[in-house]
Amino acid sequence: MATDDDVRSVLNSLRPQAETWFKLRRHPGMSDALGVPNIFTIAAPLIDAMQDHPEFSVGYNRYFCSKQLVIGPQDQAINLLRFSIRQGSPDAVAWYHRVLKTEKTNLELAGRVLGLAVSSSHRFSNGVSFRDLAELPDTENFNALKVDGAKWSIDRTSVASIDIGAADGGSVYDNGIERVSNAKEQLRATVNSLSLSEKCNPIVAETWINFLDPDLQAAEYFRIWSRSETEGSLPLGGLTLSWREVHWVEKFLQCPKEVMDACKIPLERLNTARRRLSAGDKALDGAICLETLLSGQGSGELTHKVSVRTALLLGKSLNERKEIRKRVRDFYSLRSAVVHGSTKRKRPDDDRRTAEDGLELCLAVLRAVIENKTAPAPEEWELTGGPPWNRFNSITP
User: What is the pLDDT along the chain (397 residues), one digit of tens a residue?
Assistant: First the structure.
């Protein structure tokens, strides 16, 4: 039967070869060229020692809110070697004892954000934080992100995260999965709300759960992540997070729940529309943005309802309202051409300008709703001459 001293002795004997392999592993082919054995071959004596240890021999999976922790000699021997290289064999053995005894830990949900960079960490009032790749801790998911960082630099990349809280370890994968789902929804809504800034259309790519405890971070055996749930193409450019974006996100987060709920889908559609390539597709998603906010519950011709209600919401004079109504009608004409199969238009430059103008109206409508913290009531607006903050008893030209 192996003791802690036996495991420490094996670790000390394997450290030189293991350290060489870890240094070379980011250079494919170098280990073979230099005759350095594979890490699993190097770790074989340590696996044998762990399998003969009364505590280290046990193998099982433990789930913290669906975050998997894999325990066992075959899975943790390499992490034990890595830890011993960093901090020495005595600390490595003590570390693994702590990992085995962990029954509860704190977690965060993280996601790769494309189309937005950060110059320094920022935490919004709802608990969602944004970090630069250089600030990320040493975990399997984060390390993979750092390696891929150069590939994504053209799109501007950052990481958004939100605390999930403490989770008890269990043997069931879906333990606490509803908490993860709620955190993911909040993360995506926050990223989408950045669309309230001009020309900003970041997306959440893949997401994953992180251990906040450094001991458990060091025990991660492989990457586990969820694919992107964002529709449409990748952002064509990007911005660096500034006070302008922070200003509008915080306005959104300070709205009553009914206002935030009313704006979530329109914000998502505005974001998607900005990432569409063709003018017609931009108009399709932009029209959905406006309709979700302004179509209301009753029946009726959409172009008329949405154009009039947009004018009532934004126009400050009769002439201005007439002009806005015309702009929305032009936007809907482009949208209808695509819906009815007229994909080739005679004046593509005009279509592009119409699409961009329509998306500016979408942004203005969203900002007006969020600025005034009142959920849209478009049927009432028609009867009263506009929303309470933009209502006139008598409108002059």
Answer: 999 999 999 999 999 999 988 887 666 555 555 666 888 999 999 999 999 999 999 999 999 988 999 999 999 999 999 999 999 999 999 999 999 999 999 999 999 999 999 988 999 999 999 998 878 887 777 777 766 655 555 458 899 999 999 999 888 776 678 889 999 999 999 999 999 998 889 999 999 999 999 999 999 987 888 888 888 888 877 789 999 999 999 999 999 999 999 999 999 999 999 999 999 999 999 999 999 999 988 667 889 999 999 999 999 999 999 999 999 999 999 998 888 776 556 677 889 999 999 999 999 999 999 999 999 999 999 999 999 998 875 555 5
Output phi, psi for 107, to 5 deg.
-130, 160
DSSP state, 48? H
Q: Which amino acid is at 39?
A: I
Is the torsion defined by CA of 341, 342, 348, 350 positive or negative?
negative
- Strand 116-117 vs strand 67-71: parallel, antiparallel, or unpaired? unpaired
List Cα–Cα distances, 35 to 47, 75, 361, in angstroms. 22, 24, 64
Q: Report d(CA 349, CA 229) in Å as an integer.
A: 32
Q: Alpha carbon of 2 to those of 11, 51, 76, 368: distances in Å?
A: 13, 8, 16, 70
Q: β-strand 116-117 against 239-240: which pairing, if any?
A: parallel
Distances in Å between the Cα of 120 and the Cα atoms of 39, 161, 194, 238 are 37, 14, 17, 16
Residues with Cβ within 8 Å of residue 23, at least 6 apart in sequence: none
Q: How many CB atoms lie within 10 A of CB 52?
A: 15
Taking each continuous run of H as one helix and of E as one strand, the counts in the chain are 17, 9
